[in-house]
Amino acid sequence: MSEANTPALRTVTLDYPITRGEQTITVVQVRKPASGELRDLSMSALLNLDYNALEKLLPRITMPLLSKNDISTLLDPADLTQMATEVMDFLLPKGAKAALSPNA
């Protein structure tokens, strides 16, 4: 799913690369959002992997930058799910992650 992860940056290898003109994107880095980047978004929508919320947030935190058009027309649902999972992991507090861990 992801490689070269840090607490604030995750690398997602796309199952279905995005082609924009001459550019083919096979890897997208998803950065932990700053609080201000969550402006006008519902935390519960993001934690529920709501498409509209993700479509608004991902252009703010992806490298290379994925536009709303990239997300709506070029991004495969499986790859959207990979990125959404990383976003959700960034947003969960440590206590919630520990409660969800099978080793807890």
Biggest beta sheet summary: 4 strands, antiparallel
Helical fraction equals 40-55%
Strand and helix order: EEEHHEHHH
Which percent band covers the strand fraction?
A: 25-35%
Query: In order across it, which strands form the biggest sheet?
Result: 1-2-3-4
Query: Which outline best applies?
Result: globular
Q: Using the CA coordinates, give the radius of gyration.
A: 14 Å
- The poorly predicted ranges are none
The total count of strands amounts to 4
Number of domains: 1
Class by alpha and beta content: alpha+beta
Average pLDDT metric: 90
Number of contiguous helices: 5
Q: Please report the distance between the alpha carbons of the first and last residues.
A: 23 Å
Q: In words, what does this structure look like?
A:
It is a single chain. This protein is α+β, with helices and mostly antiparallel strands and 104 residues long. The protein has one domain. It has helices at 43-47, 51-61, 68-74, 77-91, 94-100, and strands at residues 2-6, 9-20, 23-31, 62-63. Strands 1-2-3-4 form a 4-stranded antiparallel β-sheet. The model has no long low-confidence stretch (mean pLDDT 90).
Give a concise summary:
The protein contains 5 helices and 4 strands; from the N terminus they run E-E-E-H-H-E-H-H-H. A 4-stranded antiparallel β-sheet has the order 1-2-3-4. The protein has one domain.
Chain-wise SSE layout:
Blueprint: E1 2-6, E2 9-20, E3 23-31, H1 43-47, H2 51-61, E4 62-63, H3 68-74, H4 77-91, H5 94-100
